[in-house]
Amino acid sequence: MQRTGTTLQKIKPVFLMSPISVAQYLAPGSVAFDLVVIDEASQVRPEDALGVCARAKQVVIVGDKHQLPPTGFFTRLVDGDDDEGEQNDEESNSEGLPKSVAPAGAMESILTLCEARGMPSRMLRWHYRSKHPSLIQVSNVEFYQSQLLLPPSPNPISSSNGLSVCRVNGAYDRGGSRTNAVEAQAVVDTMVGHALERPQESLGVVTFSVAQRDLISSLVDERRRRDSQFDKFLSDSSDEVFVKNLENVQGDERDVIVISVGYGPRRAGGRLDSMNFGPVSTDGGERRLNVLFTRARTRCEVFVSFDSGDIDRSRATAEGARVLQRFLAFAESGKIDQTILADADYDSPFEEDVASVIRSFDYQVDPQVGSAGFKIDLGVRHCDKPGSYILAVECDGATYHSAAWA
Cα dihedral sign for 226, 254, 260, 152? Predict the structure, then answer.
């Protein structure tokens, strides 16, 4: 490239390179481009992109600010370490993040830098990947203000397509292996069933943690040794099947995606005592979920060891935990209108009195429950599933309770 750059450019006018390769092989001034397109720009740091931009007359930055930012994970890959630091799930720094996860800063990528400079932008609204509306519904509402356009599905209601959730009676070994063995085995059984019933469709398995990914990979290898048909499927589909953790799946898409949450109660059938969901509970966790939610073309099956209502929003304050709860609730019910706690207080002393009496019966009460518009005055929480409600209480409105004769 240093000796024959311009000649090579005439023979091959289109270069496909990473920012690191550009810095390594294209010396400043050796070649110039009429147009540079930076894809997956949310993952490209400004310092890595500026050298590429300097070699172009025009630049187009393509990316999604709701997807993964550059994190320490990718730096560790360069250093030969792909563990995202989950050895101590609950060990965190002063900002409440695991030590290995970088916070999503204001100028984290070339995409955010261009937005901050006020460069003209356009939204690509057509969503081509999901062949079933349920696969994109939560992301469309949560992240894109329902602006994504999806071609109508020929099979809008189907038991074999779309989003589904499979609740297993698993347990998360938080203090030991940091895995969920029951969930991992259920995922492998599903992979075997896929090999028998839908071998023509590509398959991706995504886990919330590296430890769960490694366990599933180990169980897959074990199953291959005693199941020749499963082994043949994986050998014939080596490029179409993967097992990855959450941090490493952006850019991938498969016909079928199987998700293993992994995190859950310490013992099977027990209560969800910890609201830590690994990278999902960190800064930017909701963006990791958005990436995950949008990987499937036809079907997405979620394996989890708890119900959406088990997530206690008063303890799980991270945005990622809220989005996870809404995603699971939608997978369970098929309804997107999940109630959202409003940040409001009681409308009147009368409501406070009613709430006080309900609390005397050892129930938790939230005032003004609901999204924008109509709100329920008091929501009584489920004792065993604090993320859901068992009773709504409506009190007389302001016009009535402000009257002298009330």
Answer: negative
Query: For residue 360, which amino acid is it?
Result: S
DSSP notation for 47-93: HHHHHHHTTEEEEEE---TTSPPP-HHHHHHHTT----S-TTTT-B-
- Retrieve residue 184's tokens: 């991992």
One-letter identity of residue 134: S
pLDDT, tens digit only, all 406 positions of the chain: 888 888 889 999 999 999 889 988 888 888 889 999 999 898 899 988 988 999 999 999 999 988 887 765 444 444 444 444 444 443 333 334 444 443 334 578 899 899 888 889 999 888 878 888 888 888 888 888 888 887 656 555 556 788 889 999 989 988 888 999 999 999 999 999 999 998 999 999 999 999 999 999 999 999 999 999 999 999 988 889 999 998 888 888 999 999 999 999 988 878 888 888 888 888 888 888 988 888 999 899 999 999 888 888 778 788 888 889 888 988 888 776 544 454 567 878 888 899 999 999 989 888 887 654 467 788 888 887 766 788 989 888 777 666 676 6
Q: Which residues, at least 6 apart from 342, have a Cβ–Cβ distance to it below 8 Å? A: 368, 369, 370, 371, 375
Structure tokens at 364: 């938790």
Neighbours of 90 (CB within 10 A): 10
Q: Which of 160, 332, 170 is nearest to 256 (CA)?
A: 160
Q: What span, in angstroms and rounded, lies between the C-alpha atoms of 138 and 149?
A: 14
Residue 246 phi, psi dihedral angles, 5° rounding: -55, -40
* Residue written as token pair 């992979």: 191
Helix, strand, or coil here: 213?
helix
Q: Which helix (H) or strand (E) holds 322?
A: helix 319-333
Q: Which of 173, 137, 96, 113 is nearest to 323 (CA)?
A: 137
